[in-house]
Amino acid sequence: MHSGSFFLARCQRLVEDVEEAEQSVGELQSEPRGTIRLAAPMSFGHREVASRLPAFLARHPKLRVHLDLTDRFVDLVREKFDLAIRVSGRLVESSLVQRRLCPLALTVCAAPSYLDRRGTPRAPEELRDHECLSYGPTTTTWSFSRGRRIEVSGALTIDNGDALRRVALAGHGIVYLPTFLVADDLRAGRLVSILARDIDAGGGAFAVYPESRHLSPKVRALIDALVASFAAELPDRHHDEHRWRAPDGSEPDR
What we know:
Elements: H1 3-28, E1 34-40, H2 42-49, H3 53-59, E2 63-69, E3 83-88, E4 96-103, E5 106-110, H4 112-118, E6 132-133, E7 139-143, E8 149-153, H5 161-169, E9 174-178, H6 179-188, E10 192-194, E11 204-210, H7 217-231
C-alpha cells in the first residue's frame, strides 16, 4: 500500500475509534442505545437467534438490531458489522474475540434409502467411497475425533444447512450437520445417525467481534442476553442432541 494511502486509512481508523469511545462514554451514562448490526448463518439465525431478539429489545427499548442472515463468511471490519455468530467446530481466529454461546452437537447422517443402496460406513475413512453432501468446494474435509481429517467429495455442494438436509432426506448422500437441523428427522427415522462414536464433540455457536474494535455496551448487552438465553435451555436442546441410536440400535458410546 502507498504510504499516503496507509496514513489516510490509519487516520480514518483513529477517527472511528474516537467516535466509538465517545459513544461508549455516553452509553455508560445511560442505557444502551443505537443500532447493532448482527450477522448470523441463515439456518441457525432463523431457528435459534431471531426468536430471542424481541425479548432483548423489550428490555432495551432504545436499541435496534439489524439481523443479516447469510451463510456467506462476512468480513466484520470491512462490512462494518458489530457482531457475528459463527457455527463451527473448535473456532480459532486470531483476529477475532470470541465468546461461546452454546455447544452444538454434530452428526453424520443419511436417509435409510441411501444406506440400503450404498451400505453404512463403519469408519470415517470409508466416507471416501460415498457421496458426501457438504458446504464449500467439490472436495472438502470433515473433522473427526482424535484429530482425524477425512477428505470427502460429492457431486453436489450447497451453502445452506437446511438445503443439505432436504437433499439428504431424498436419499442422495451423507451429510455432516449440527443436530439442531436434523433432530426431528433422527427421532422419526427419516435420517439415521452413523459414525456416532467418531464425532468431534467440540462444536459450538460463537459470538465473534474484531479484536481491534472496542466492545460497546450495546454489543455486550446483546452477547450477554444470548448467552443467558441459550444457557437456560442446556443441556436438553443442544448438548445432548447427539444421543441418537446408531444403525445397529446401540447408543453412542460417549
